[in-house]
Amino acid sequence: MPIAGTISILITSNALKGKMRYCTLVAAGASIADFIYVFISVFGLTKLYSFYKPFIPYVLFGGAIFLFFIGYKTVKTKLGLENIDEKNYISKKIKKERGGFWTGLILNFLNPTLFMGWLTSSFFVISLITSLGFNTGGLEILMGQNIQQINKTGGNNINSQNTISYFQVDTVNTTLQQIHRENNARLPNYFPFLVSICYAFFLSLGGIMWFYFLARFLVKYRTKFNLKVMNRVIQILGIVLCLFGVFLVYTVIKMII
After folding, report:
1. pLDDT in tens, 83-138
2. Closest CA to 25 of 104, 106, 108
3. The whole model's pTM is what?
4. Structural domain count, the chain
5. Which DSSP string do the residues of 106-168 spell out, in sequence order?
6. How far apart are CA 48 and CA 44, in angstroms?
7. Which structural domain range is residue 172 located in?
8. pLDDT tens, 20-61?
């Protein structure tokens, strides 16, 4: 459940406007970017990071500009009595809402920090599952190697030593490691690729489901809120999006310096 973040704010603000279709498309587009980042971080294509790293500041700057644009449009939004009705509002805006998919995709894709987030969180989840005795096909070892590879490129964005030590020494005992090695020896070579695809797919699917039900809930009960309060909430969410853009600019400046 990606509770916090730019996509959550974007979907919340548009759900309060009654744009259910737009929210669904944003969630679908964002999930594509999540799928790509999760698969890359899990399967071990982190060697590409050394080639991608020099362009990260420019990508983040592009993401900041995009966030400012969306935030500005959100702040300027003002709902009136004529568009508070969900069906009437959606029927008038149906053509404009088709761009929601690309908005979600671009917004997530222009945030390379998601790659780091998914790398560390996936390592935590997979290592935890392994510690409970489930066979992950050696993905917990692969994830640890991926994190070490990222740190070797000079990124220094992931402080993994304590986490790796905790799961490999304290949680996953010697007996379990022996069992995993024996089980992994019987698995086909394509197993890590298959598990990575499944993990990334279902994680993305879970994100879509969460945003879909969140949007439905907000769209259904948005008429219960006072119109002035709803406009104020939407404007605040737009300001928060702009602040995310400021943070990305700060991150770019810090990386360049």
Report:
1. 555 554 444 454 555 678 989 998 888 887 777 778 777 777 777 777 777 777 66
2. 104
3. 0.74
4. 1
5. HHHHT-THHHHHHHHHHHHHHHHHHHTT---TTHHHHHHHHHHHHHHTT------HHHHHIII
6. 9
7. 1-257
8. 999 999 999 999 999 988 888 777 655 666 677 777 788 888
